[in-house]
Design brief:
By secondary structure, the chain is an alpha+beta fold. The chain is built from eight helices and eight strands. The chain has two domains: 2-112 and 277-353, no CATH class; 118-211, Roll (Pdz3 Domain), CATH 2.30.42.10. 50% of the residues lie in helices and 21% in strands. The protein starts with a helix and ends with a helix.
């Protein structure tokens, strides 16, 4: 069964890469840019076909792909070259890949939510004896946590996540009897309660159920997409602040292993494939966000440098040679490939030594 899950995980990776490059490709075509090659995968070609001005190829290493446009990093006399397009067109083309990944993530979530009859939401189910926060102008049983300090609460675990950040007061937004109730600067700290070995807020959380009609499925699909996006940003924040290290990163090898392990822990093949597909949605949204970071070689880095170039050209009235931007992206690509190699080595080492 592990082999089936690994194949399914690899298929998901191929689709994510393909849809990303297709976003660049279809937008470039719509903007009138000449596309020389549309390739899924890297390395030697397993299959290729010339159709019109574009070469379509499937290559043997399923860890990338590209949409090669005329004049992408060099000056060109061709009016259809990428570098000869208006800035808004170039930005649109560069952002299209990440957009398609994000859209695919939402579509996967919606597809998985289609059979749902209801959705669980975090509800305050009761209070410990002596809890001071139970009051007519405070918290009440049946309240659904909607926001804490401006952060949306999507699941029960989010409540403890955002209440554990410290502080003596919180801005709470609750849903009570179908209406939103705001408690601004609400004083709330952990206290000692009889029979408990640590300080607590003194209330119990349970799951309420929201009926899953079509509109609710759309809303919860979007909410899950936003939750995944927040997880990515929180992960990046942990990396920047040193709460996690480079050794904790995982690449394609590690992710495929996690997917296969998730499938093996499922009760049935269908359940396993659905869980892997759910992880695929998370990865799709992760790729969309990561790819738009302002780092050379990534689409976000290209957009950032394009804006800088456009600003400089607007001030100096001189067109910059795009080859210099190409050098920056080439250097970024080398560093990115080195990071990928390091992460892959760690993933393989973990597999061998576990």
């Amino acid at each position: 069964m592990t082999f089936v899950y690994i194949l399914f995980a690899l298929l998901i990776f191929g689709v994510l890469i393909g849809i990303h490059e297709f976003g660049h490709f279809i937008t470039a075509k719509a903007c009138g840019v000449k596309v020389e090659e549309f390739s899924i995968g890297m390395g030697p070609a397993l299959w290729k076909k010339q159709k019109g001005e574009t070469l379509y190829a499937l290559r043997c290493i399923p860890l990338g792909g590209y949409c090669a446009m005329t004049g992408e990093d060099t000056a060109s006399d061709d009016p259809r070259a990428f570098t000869n397009q208006k800035p808004w067109k170039r930005i649109l083309i560069l952002c299209a890949g990440a957009f398609m990944n994000f859209l695919l993530g939402l579509l996967i979530i919606f597809f998985l939510y289609l059979p749902a009859k209801g959705f669980y939401v975090p509800v305050l189910s009761g209070f410990m004896e002596g809890c001071p926060y139970e009051a007519a102008d405070g918290l009440q049983a049946g309240d659904r946590f909607y926001k804490i300090d401006g952060h949306r609460i999507y699941q029960t675990g989010d409540v403890s996540t955002f209440l554990s950040r410290g502080g003596d007061t919180y801005d709470l937004e609750l849903i009570r009897n179908g209406q939103k109730v705001k408690l601004e600067d609400y004083p709330m700290v952990t206290l000692e309660y009889e029979g408990q070995d640590r300080k607590m807020f003194g209330f119990y959380l349970g799951n309420g159920v929201v009926e899953a009609d079509f509109g609710t499925k759309l809303q919860f699909t979007w909410d899950k997409g936003m939750e995944f996006s927040r997880l990515v940003w929180m992960g990046l924040s942990d990396l920047v602040h040193g709460r996690v290290g480079m050794k904790d990163l995982s690449g394609p090898v590690g992710i495929v292993d996690v997917m296969a392990e998730t499938g093996n822990q499922s009760e049935s093949l269908r359940d396993g494939l659905e869980r892997i597909l759910f992880l695929g949605a998370l990865i799709a949204i992760n790729l969309a966000i990561m790819n738009m970071l302002p780092i050379p070689a990534l689409d976000g880095g290209r957009v950032f440098l394009l804006l800088i170039t456009w600003l400089i050209e607007g001030v100096t009235r001189k067109k910059l040679d795009p080859k210099y931007e190409g050098y920056i992206h080439a250097g970024g690509m080398i560093l990115l490939l080195a990071l990928m190699a390091y992460v892959m080595f760690n993933d393989i080492f973990r597999l061998i030594t576990r």
